[in-house]
Design goal:
The complex is a heterotrimer of chains A (344), B (295) and C (232).
Chain A lengths: L9 E3 L3 H18 L1 H4 L2 H26 L8 H17 L4 H23 L4 H20 L10 E2 L8 H28 L1 H11 L1 H6 L4 H27 L1 E2 L1 H5 L2 H13 L5 H17 L4 H17 L4 H9 L9 E3 L8 E3 L1
Helix pairs in contact in A: 3-7, 3-10, 3-12, 3-13, 4-5, 4-6, 4-10, 5-10, 7-8, 7-10, 12-13
Chain B lengths: L1 H34 L6 H19 L6 H23 L9 H23 L15 E5 L2 E4 H23 L1 H11 L1 H6 L4 H26 L7 H15 L4 H21 L4 H15 L10
Helix pairs in contact in B: 1-5, 1-8, 1-9, 1-10, 2-3, 2-4, 2-8, 2-9, 3-8, 5-6, 5-8, 5-10, 6-8, 9-10, 9-11, 10-11
Chain C lengths: L1 E12 L2 E12 L3 E6 L5 H8 L10 E3 L2 E2 L5 H6 L2 E4 L11 H8 L10 H7 L1 H5 L10 H13 L5 E5 L7 H9 L1 H5 L4 E6 L2 H7 L2 E6 L2 E7 L5 H9 L2
Parallel strand pairs in C: 3-8, 3-9, 6-7, 7-8
Antiparallel strand pairs in C: 1-2, 1-4, 4-5, 9-10
The chains are: A mainly alpha (344), B mainly alpha (295), C alpha/beta (232).
């Protein structure tokens, strides 16, 4: 029994939850934007930091969850962004706020030759290889006395700016960057490139045979992730006023980024946002416990990953089919014998 | 002639250092070869072993010439048990095609180990009392002397490479390792329980880790945060030498050691950096390493 | 005496059902063939018996004992060995090492390395050759030998002829009587119906996961088999 009439189907994206979620997010952004007018400097700095972690984690998620490239060396680009800001601000006399996106672009360009080396490795060896590359960056900078060598230096370019202005502009930049990072990731994944990414993640060979340029697409994702990491680094050290190789290139960035994504859920956009919030709360509550806090984080990451290999939110959203950022496509068939709908 | 002699001395130093790096790497090579698992906590386990040998040696109370060796011998069965247990209880759940879960779990382990060590021992560097062994040297030619401990370490590394090669190629266990690595499902059809085989591999690997940790701790000071560096050296030795071959790992370690020592000669800050650069260069030129057997 | 029996056996790949209530039995010493088109479920059937795929405990019985769903390690220990589809040799092991792997289950019996080399003299010359360098026919011999090394009571052969030239297939199947001489029971999954009929005493035909025909191999006509194979 074949279906005689031409099957008409529609591709839907939005869900009820996503419409509600969208409204909630827009109002949150508006609320946050007003904060410099009434919140304390300390609180603003905290949110700056969380925004940087969020951007970093979102980029890591794009790279690993969608691009299938698990990296523990993204801190190379984060630190590079920070140092690019330093050099542009301190030595080239560029306005530090303008230098932030410039530093991100510079980092993205640097990612292209780095990718040539990194892409020689696969899977687990790729991950550690990226760490080695980050170490090369760290050691190279630590040996460069002009930028303070191993002990780092201060962002003197910010000295001329009035304190309140500096804090407010930094905050709005961080907020804007976070919105852009999330928004851009969302748009990429909704686009054709996003579909290509999913195909590559599932099977490179099959994707290649369908005409997808696997290498180019992967490079694109890698560069985009580097841009985001560089942006996060520039913003972080803009607010920190001081940079050192150990702070800029520490593998802790990757550790926290991975933690945020795994708690939140890899391969989703809600995941890193939720993870960043959880991380922020955990930090506030427990960081006084120092090493025990970190032990707890480690154990939590282990337990979550064993039980939910794709992260907590991933497990939740799959179970209850809740998606705030609908990147999947629902294929809705006309109501006939087949009935129902399914989505990828 | 002083110049040449000093260069020879440098290179010999590098070769012997390579023996230690090869020791770091052999256990990685074994685990990666058998189950394709990347263990980012590897270096931290070596440091953990160093601290364990340190504490046991102190507790034994014998003179420093003997204590650490006895401590190591006592540690070996414990290390095997720990590795076997860790694999069966935790790591077996994350072995698979997707590298992410094993990376995250071992990352978590690394953080746990580093911070627990910090709690127990503080961040101060320690060193295992060697009774002078770490500064003893042998004179092998006019004006050329080499450290006794590095020589001993190198000899142990060669011995272990030979032993592991023998294990892999000539024993039933080695066969099981290779079979499970080739085709885990077909191995199951033969009656091999891969969970047990993996755990045996990790158990043996942990014994190698204990030996590496002890020798490292005798040679230099160590602190809880030192793990990652050792992971990277071991990893580089494996990649340079080619995965799946223990002699290859030895050669990889030697190349890395020599490179680092040459780098140090020019400027202390550039030693490790040069090692990383040579590694990355290897990736560009020969991504499969010199002796690669495993893909 | 029935050695192996399945009752209403169902099997799934994830949510996708492949076998729909298959009834099958084989007596000790019999050679039974299983034929059917691609995707009919023949390989799935064998995989379910040897524990690679799950099943209800009582759906599969070995000498009356329920063994459905037990892990492959257990099944091999109880004397069921599989010659997998596509050989699945260990590529970094030599021919002889592959054979030795078969002995992991440590069951007592007549099949030793020497016995395998007597069965397949060609292999004796190639014992040290890496498995990946062997020809298709030689690989098939190793795969069979490897299964025999576990001294099974029941041998499951999945598509022995896959990818082999007809003359080589004949060589392989000519060895079958020697294998079964000692009382070995065998289930032969085959795409080639003529060969299946020739080497077996009874056969089953599967179509889309169901048994559509069963009977004595010599008696069934081509017409009957065609109908059962393709379904109309």
């Amino acid at each position: 029994m074949s279906n005689a009439k031409a099957a008409t189907f529609e591709v839907h994206r939005a869900t009820r939850a996503s419409r509600a979620g969208g409204l909630a997010i827009l109002s949150s952004i508006a609320f946050l934007a007003t904060m410099p007018l009434w919140a304390e400097a300390g609180t603003l700095r905290e949110i700056d930091e969380i925004a940087c972690y969020l951007i970093y984690a979102m980029m890591w998620n794009l790279l690993a969850g969608y691009g299938g490239m698990v990296s523990i060396g993204q801190q190379a680009f984060l630190g590079l962004g920070g140092y690019a800001l330093l050099v542009m601000g301190n030595f080239a006399g560029v306005n530090p706020f303008v230098a932030v996106p410039l530093a991100a672009f510079f980092t993205a360009i640097c990612a292209i030759p780095v990718a040539q080396i990194a892409f020689r490795l696969q899977g687990g060896t790729f991950a550690i290889g990226t760490w080695v590359i980050a170490e090369v960056f760290r050691l190279s900078i630590a040996n460069w006395s002009a930028v303070g060598g191993g002990s780092g230096t201060s962002l003197t370019a910010l000295r001329g700016i009035e304190k309140a202005t500096r804090i407010h502009v930094t905050f709005w930049l961080c907020l804007a960057a976070a919105v852009v990072a999330v928004g851009a990731t969302y748009l990429i994944l909704r686009s054709r490139q996003g579909l290509a990414l999913l195909a590559i993640r599932d099977s490179e060979v099959a994707a290649e045979s369908q005409g997808i340029h696997v290498r180019k697409t992967k490079l694109g994702v890698y560069v985009a992730a580097a841009f985001g990491a560089g942006l996060a680094g520039a913003l972080y050290f803009l607010g920190n006023l001081r940079i050192s190789p150990d702070a800029a290139f520490t593998v802790n960035w990757s550790a926290f980024g991975i933690f945020i994504v795994m708690i939140g859920g890899i391969g989703t956009i809600e995941g890193p946002i939720i993870g960043a919030l959880v991380f922020y709360l955990l930090n506030k509550v427990a960081s006084d416990f120092g090493t025990w806090y970190l032990v707890g984080l480690g154990v939590l990451a282990i337990a979550v990953t064993i039980r939910f290999p794709r992260g907590l939110w991933g497990g939740f959203s799959r179970r209850f089919d809740v998606h705030f950022f609908p990147v999947q496509r629902r294929l809705v068939l006309p109501p006939d014998e087949t009935g129902g709908s399914f989505h990828a | 002639m002083v110049g040449t002699l000093s260069w020879i001395s440098t290179i010999v130093q590098g070769v012997l250092l390579g023996g230690l790096y090869a020791l770091f790497a052999m256990s990685q090579s074994l685990i990666f070869g058998v189950m394709r698992l990347t263990n980012t906590a590897h270096g931290d386990f070596i440091i953990l072993a160093a601290f364990a040998v340190f504490s046991v040696a102190v507790a034994i109370g014998l003179p420093p010439a003997a204590a650490p060796w006895l401590a190591l011998i006592l540690m070996l069965p414990i290390a095997f048990g720990a590795g076997y247990g860790l694999q069966r209880l935790v790591l077996n759940r994350v072995v698979g095609r997707d590298p992410l879960p094993s990376l995250v779990v071992t990352f978590g382990l690394a953080i746990v180990i580093e911070n627990l060590l910090q709690e127990i021992y503080t961040a101060d560097p320690r060193s295992i009392e060697s009774g002078g062994l770490n500064v003893a040297s042998l004179s092998i030619a006019a004006g050329l002397s080499i450290g006794t401990l590095p020589l001993l370490t190198f000899a142990i590394a060669v011995g272990i490479a030979a032993g592991m090669q023998w294990l892999s190629g000539r024993t039933a266990l080695g066969r099981a390792f290779r079979a499970v690595s080739d085709d885990r499902d077909a191995a199951q059809l033969m009656g091999l329980d891969h969970r047990h085989v993996y755990a045996l591999a990790t158990g043996i690997a942990f014994m190698l880790v204990a030996i590496a940790g002890a020798l490292h701790g005798l040679k230099t000071t160590f602190a809880p945060a030192d793990g990652p560096a050792l992971l990277l050296y071991g990893f580089e030795a494996v990649i340079i030498g080619g995965m799946g071959s223990f002699y290859g790992t030895l050669l990889g370690g030697i190349i890395l050691g020599v490179t680092q020592v040459i780098g140090f000669r020019f400027d202390p800050g550039w030693g490790i950096w040069l090692g990383h650069i040579v590694f990355l260069g290897m990736l560009l030129l020969r991504p499969t390493g010199f002796f690669a057997k495993t893909r | 005496m029935t050695l192996l029996a399945t009752r209403q056996l169902e099997s799934y790949y994830g949510d996708f059902q492949v076998l729909f209530g298959v009834d099958f039995d084989i007596a000790a010493g019999e050679v039974v063939a299983l034929i059917g088109a691609n995707g009919a479920g023949k390989s799935t059937f064998l995989k379910t018996i040897c524990g690679v795929l799950g099943a209800r405990r009582d759906a599969v019985t070995l000498e009356g004992q329920p063994v459905g769903g037990l892990p492959p390690v257990e099944i091999v220990r109880r004397g069921i060995a599989m010659v997998p589809e596509g050989r699945r040799l260990f590529s970094s092991l030599s021919a002889e090492e592959n054979l030795l792997m078969g002995a992991c289950a440590r069951r007592e019996g007549p099949w030793t390395l020497d016995a395998i080399y007597r069965l397949f003299p060609l292999l004796a010359e190639k014992r040290r050759a890496p498995a990946a360098t062997l020809s298709g026919g030689q690989q098939q011999m190793v795969a069979i030998g490897r299964a025999l090394m576990s001294n099974p009571r029941l041998l499951l052969c999945d598509e022995l002829s896959l990818g082999l030239a007809p003359i080589v297939v004949k060589q392989i199947y000519d060895a079958l009587p020697a294998i079964c001489d000692g009382g070995m029971t065998a289930v032969i999954v085959e795409q080639d119906v003529a060969t299946a009929q020739r080497v077996s005493s009874r056969l089953y035909c599967l179509q889309e996961g169901r048994v559509t025909l069963t009977g004595a191999s010599r008696v069934l006509t081509r017409e009957q088999i065609s109908q059962a194979y393709f379904g109309v």
